[in-house]
Amino acid sequence: MAGEPAAAVPEVFTEDALRMPAGEAAVRGRAAIVAALAGSVALASAHFDLSEIEVDGDLAYADGRYAVRPPEGAELTGKFLEVWKRTAEGWRIHRVMWD
Predict the structure, then answer these.
(1) Pick the CATH number of 5-98 from 3.90.1150.10, 2.60.220.30, 2.60.40.10, 3.10.450.50
(2) pTM of the prediction?
(3) CB 80: neighbour CB atoms within 10 A?
(4) Is 44 left (phi over 0), alpha (psi -120 to 50) or beta?
């Protein structure tokens, strides 16, 4: 999803999500993730390719590669690992890490 990163957080993360970006401190909780992303640059494009996904009850595990591009600058690429959790609102990211 391209656009304002902080605007998408309530729709995609669990209340007690854990975000572990490469080279940065871990951030726990939806409100803290929103605050951490508040100053982020809007993305001109974002593309995610899933390599594998496995569902086990109310949890799902996914990994793959990503490519994002800010409005000004070079494309950033890497890999990610996510744990999704089924909630009353639907599937949400519960844990995420990338490099």
Answers:
(1) 3.10.450.50
(2) 0.84
(3) 18
(4) alpha
